[in-house]
Amino acid sequence: MALVIRSSAAKLAASYVLLGILALVLFALPLSYAWRAAVNDTRVQILTEDSQRLADIFKSKGPAGLADTINERVGLQIAGERILLLADANEKPLAGNVPDWPAGVPKEPGSYTTPITLDGHPTMVTLVRTELPGGYNLLVGRDVARLAPVTTRFWYGLAAAIAVLLVTGVVGGILIRRALLFRIHSIRQTVSAIMQGELSHRLPTGSSSDELNTLSLTINRMLEQIEQLVHGVANVSNAIAHDLRTPLTELRSRLEELSLTRPPPGEAFAEVEAAVADVDRVICIFNALLRLAEIDTGMRRSGFVNVDLVDLCARAVEFYVPAAEIRDITLTYKNESGLLQTSGDQLLMAQAVNNLIDNALKYTPPGGTVSVSTMRPSGEAAGIVVADTGPGMTDVQRARATERFFRGDASRGTPGVGLGLSLVEAVAKLHGGTLEFADQHPGLRATINFPGTT
Amino acid sequence: MKMLLVEDNERVTRFVTKGLQEAGHTADHADNGRDGLFLAASERYDVIIMDRMLPGNIDGLSLISALRQSGNQTPILILSALADVDERIKGLRAGGDDYLTKPFAFGELLARLDALGRRTRQDGTVTTLEVADLRMDLLSRKVMRGARQILLQPREFKLLEYLMRHAGQVVTRTMLLENVWDYHFDPQTNVVDVHISKLRQKIEPEPEHSLLRTVRNAGYMLSAE
Q1: For residue A55, is pLDDT > 60?
Q2: pLDDT digits (tens, 9 = 90+) for A305-362
Q3: Helices B154-165, B191-203: crossing angle, 10 deg rounding
Q4: DSSP per position, chain B
Q5: pLDDT value at position A174?
Q6: pLDDT digits (tens, 9 = 90+) for A413-423
Q7: Where are the alpha helices (DSSP H) in A196-244?
């Protein structure tokens, strides 16, 4: 992993440096070309104008006059005026700063940039050759090399820029690699710790919103989910081990006793039926646990549809009214909110509401009241409230009510396995909601809160 | 009724075939998907009982899909250990008519098979249902016992309608929960019994002429006898 990062950081730095150099060169080449062209053109133009002026002097004052002017100018020692030469038809010098007609000067009049031999050295010059009346030749030229230091400096500058780019690239690459490696390394350490079973570890995160931090946050959320699932599985396994053992023990002893004592058929069949009932109890616990596990994984979220909470509660109440009547309990439903719809799992929500009502009926003494209501406490939130006039719960009981297989003292002697409220809470959680209990002196007030409804 | 059981577990097979025979049905058996498909396609059955996980290449669901695609409309009850709600939906979507999860009570299976087998013979356009002197008019939603009109709540009406449509058959509590209340879960209460006894009070003022009987270990049956 480190190797990959190392090479990828280096690659990244290298490619940036290369790109920078390429951009610099592409920028410098046209610039240098344009600059050279512009300098050369200007030079030729100046030389041509100069020749023109000298030719005018020649026309008005004759060869001797021009020779005087030229000698006068050579005497001024104007820097850069490298070649100023008047020669006769046979290229024999008459006046100027060059003693001999330089070799390599083209025969035809015109402007040239060409190497010629000057003082015995080959020199690159720009010159203008003009033919004056009477076969006289005028040569005006400048040494190109005079600007060479500027060009050289330009290239030196370019090279220096490239060097700076290279250094920053390498240093930047190293720094980036270090920073990345440092964080990757800490992530790797945490992940290895997690792989060893330390599920509570979390990746270090900062407050910045860079990619690595975002990734860490996402991974942390995933770890939280995993931890929750693992704990869920562990809890369920413990619960199964603990609570299935009781009915299984009963079943086993019943069957063993049956096979040992071999009672008469009538008695035996009664025992067999009791054994079937034991098995049914085991299956029942089993199903409830599987349903809880199914909810806990959150898989069922994919099948969410629009659920009408008012209709759902009304139907649940209608379902339980006859049973309540028999026990002389008043079961009522009141909707205080108008339309209440939410995206959810119809079946699970119905089961959750039914469980709450069933629970309330179980603990409410005859003559009591169980009132179900739907309300909208604020904005988009919705609440399903089931309030009873039973004994309520103590603080300890309230805290443990949704624990799997927890049964309060009041529930001794009533049917049930202690998974009803666990399911309600799991369903609420699945829908992003909560299950809350409150004391309402007397009785218990259970509320399922759903966050997003319409 | 003539039934086909496609099931690979020997013990379940023995338990179901024996029970069906005792109830007066005949049952053929296939222990893999290929034989099951062959039998289902070549013979005429009233109901097919289908396990989902079968040995060989053809599982229960693809077998059902194959049958339905070839135009075979025999009612199929899926018998499976896959109990998730989603699995149930998958089974019904593939073309199954009912879904029962293992482990199951034989009474439940028998009652559901009866309901499925009769359904094919029932005329879909009935407007009145009659059991002895109990009459239900589905259009005007009136219920009469002899000359006396019985007033029912909407849910009671639905409950009685279901019982009357399955007159002479055992109807289990789970079947009632699923079909009358649309509750596909076990509420773990005797609430259905309470509803039945309330209904009984309304339709049977004199208990000696009882039409609605409780069948031990199974459910209820509405019949003229």
Answers
A1: yes
A2: 888 999 999 999 999 999 999 999 999 999 888 888 888 888 889 989 999 999 899 8
A3: 90
A4: -EEEEE---HHHHHHHHHHHHHTT-EEEEESSHHHHHHHHHHS--SEEEEESS-SSS--HHHHHHHHHHTT----EEEEES---HHHHHHHHHHT-SEEEESS--HHHHHHHHHHHHHHHHS-TT--EEEETTEEEETTTTEEEETTEEE---HHHHHHHHHHHHTTTSEEEHHHHHHHHS---S---SSHHHHHHHHHHHHH-SSGGG--EEEETTTEEEE---
A5: 83
A6: 555 666 788 88
A7: 211-243
Q: Considering the entire predicted model, what is its pTM?
A: 0.62
The tokens for B205 are 């003022």
CA pair distance B136, B129, nearest whole angstrom: 5
Least confident of A96-105, A233-242, A379-388: A233-242
Q: Is B99 helix (H, G, I), strand (E, B) or coil?
A: strand
Give the Cα separation of B39 and B29 in Å (integer).
Answer: 9
Q: Is A351 on the interface with B (CB under 8 A)?
A: yes
**What pLDDT digit, counting tens, does each position of B40-78 carry?**
989 999 999 999 888 878 888 999 999 999 988 899 999
Q: Tell me the average pLDDT of chain A.
A: 82
Six token digits for residue B86: 């989603």
Q: Are strands A444-450 and B2-6 parallel, antiparallel or unpaired?
A: unpaired
Copy the structure tokens of residue B37: 């498909």
Report chain A residues whose CB lies below 8 A from the CB of B195. 322
B78 forms bridges with which residues in the sheet? B50, B99
A 372-411: CB under 8 A from B? none
Measured distance CA(B8)–CA(B29) in Å, rounded: 9
Tokens of A254: 């019943």
* Per-residue buried b or exposed e for B44-70, using 16+ beta carbons within 10 Å of the residue's own CB: ebbbbbbbbebeeebebbebbebbeee
As a whole number of angstroms, the distance between CA A220 and CA A201 comes to: 9
Token pair 């013990």 is found at: B11
Interface check for A279 against chain B (CB to CB < 8 A): the answer is: yes
Smallest CA–CA distance, residue A438 to chain B, in Å, is: 24
| Number of A–B residue contacts, CB under 8 Å | 51
DSSP-derived secondary structure for A102-141? PBT--SSSEEEEEEEEETTEEEEEEEEEEEPGGG-EEEEE
Distance between CA A67 and CA A80 in Å, rounded? Answer: 20
> Which ipTM score applies to this complex?
0.80
